[in-house]
Amino acid sequence: MKNRCLICSMALVSSVALGGCGMLPGGGGGTTTVTVWLMKDSVSDDFLKRFVTDYEKEHPSVELDIKIQEWTGIGQKVLGALAGDDTPDVIEVGNTQVAQYAETRNLRDLTLESVRDLGSEDWLPGLADPGSINGAQFGIPWYAANRIVIYNKDLFALAGIKKPPKTRQQWLADTEKLNRGDNQGIYLAGQDWYTLAGFIWDEHGELAVEAGGEFQGAIDSPAALKGMAFYKDLQSLGDGPKNSDEAKPPQAELFAKGDIAQIISTPNAARIIEERNPELKGKLGFFPIPGKTADKPGAVFTGGSDLIVPKKSSHHSAAVEVVTALAGQKWQTDLARTMSYVPNKASLAGVIGGDESTAAMAAGAAQGRATPNSPQWASVEADNPIKPYMTAVLEGKDPEEEAKAAAQRISAALASG
Fold first, then answer.
1. What is the C-alpha to C-alpha distance for residues 409 and 407, in angstroms, rounded to an integer?
2. What is the dihedral of CA 301, 306, 311, 312, to 10 degrees?
3. Taking Cα atoms as reference points, which of 282, 300, 196, 298 lies closest to residue 240?
4. Mind listing the pLDDT tens digit of every residue in the chain (417 residues)?
5. N or C: which end of the chain has fewer CB within 10 A?
6. How many other CB atoms are found less than 10 A from the CB of residue 80?
7. What's the Rg (C-alpha) of the chain?
């Protein structure tokens, strides 16, 4: 999944590869070994040890065989595992990957368990929706992460801004005040298309829509054009490059120089900023991306992971029990506190405690969305037409013409499968 760069970059603790054997000795005769594929850096080694120890104590006939996977090449590896004979029982996948795997018809339908055991009515939409294909739940939400605004408190104070903005219009007004002299009001790269997606969703637009069983690009709709217009207004209040994204150059490193008032990023950027410039410790603030009205934050792209159970699993019931534990309140609370993730349910947002950055992320996650739920969406991101469209508009070309061309390219990519 292309958006996995968002999650890999936000991992705060490196997990230690646990090898291909169970973490703890088996329980002797009659033991069921449940093989679980988890992605590198998704969780810490300490979290895994706690979970495995506790789970095997509560389920003495089960041994967990945790295998850590690399993100590079994971798509083909999972597809091969789903079709093969040596299939794991539980697999962590990127939330927007579920449709691709469900298309193989090799996933177990977990709709019943979602309703009966997992409280699916309270799941974050940005995690739950990508896991639901034609009304069947194949992906169980595990954890989420999304962008927030990180700001320099000293620069806000210097501009006379006493509290973070709650609406888009106030955000623009405050950013204009901040964009003075040698300081940038905001550093927003011209091709940060995940941020643009949120602005489009706020206008009730879409990147693509489904009609008659086929997806078509929709970035040229009037609503989507309004989202792009707001992006252009905001982007103009700083010196972000119009022809690059937030990773080139790394925006957190630029922010660390101290003359940028705001960036839009996941909270882990704060660690990078403080490492680069220790003088900024204690001077960073965080707030959710503002919405059109003050009653709720703006829409954001939700990155994260879901858990799937292959049809060819040899231990369906035991696999579902493991998923139920990982997605349940006890281990969701532990995971959120350990990794600074957003839990899979809105009702669990309070478990994060007093961490300002994660609390801002959880507030934004309530308005979280995911990319279009097409198995071919990865084809769109592989040669993303949204990025050059954004650059063209920021450089003064006709928004409607450029959006129409981008929408056609999106439609072609979605039809490629």
1. 5
2. 120
3. 196
4. 434 333 333 333 333 333 333 333 334 457 999 999 999 989 999 999 999 999 999 999 999 999 999 988 898 999 999 999 889 999 999 998 999 999 999 999 999 999 999 999 999 988 899 999 989 999 999 998 899 999 999 999 999 999 999 999 999 999 999 999 999 999 999 999 999 999 999 999 999 999 888 999 999 999 999 999 999 999 999 999 999 999 999 999 999 999 999 999 998 899 899 999 999 999 999 999 999 999 999 999 998 999 999 999 999 999 999 999 999 999 999 998 888 888 999 889 888 767 889 889 988 988 999 999 898 998 898 899 999 999 999 999 999 999 999 999 999 999 975
5. C
6. 11
7. 22
> Which phi and psi (to 5°) does residue 178 adopt?
-75, -25
Residues 6+ apart with CB under 8 A from 157: none
Amino acid at 236: S
Burial of 25 (0-12, 13-18, 19+ CB in 10 A): exposed
Q: Report which of 14, 13, 32 is spatially closest to residue 22, judged by C-alpha positions.
A: 32
Gap between the Cα atoms of 131 and 321, Å rounded: 18
Listed residue (366, 345, 218) closest to 299, CA to CA: 366
The whole-model pTM stands at 0.81
- Answer for the pair 189, 246: CB distance below 8 angstroms, yes or no: yes
Give the 3-state secondary structure of the chain. CCCHHHHHHHCCCCCCCCCCCCCCCCCCCCCEEEEEEEECCCCCHHHHHHHHHHHHHHCCCEEEEEEEECCCCHHHHHHHHHHCCCCCCEEEEEHHHHHHHHCCCCECCCHHHHHHCCCHHHECHHHHHHHEECCEECCEEEEEEECEEEEEHHHHHHCCCCCCCCEHHHHHHHHHHHCCCCCECCECCCCCHHHHHHHHHHCCCCCEEEECCEEEECCCCHHHHHHHHHHHHHHCCCCCCCCCCCECCEHHHHHCCCCECEEEECCCHHHHHHHHCHHHCCCEEEECCCECCCCCCCCEEEEEEEEECECCCCCHHHHHHHHHHHHCHHHHHHHHHHHCCECCEHHHHHHHCCCHHHHHHHHHHCCEECCCCCCCHHHHHHCCCHHHHHHHHHCCCCHHHHHHHHHHHHHHHHCCC
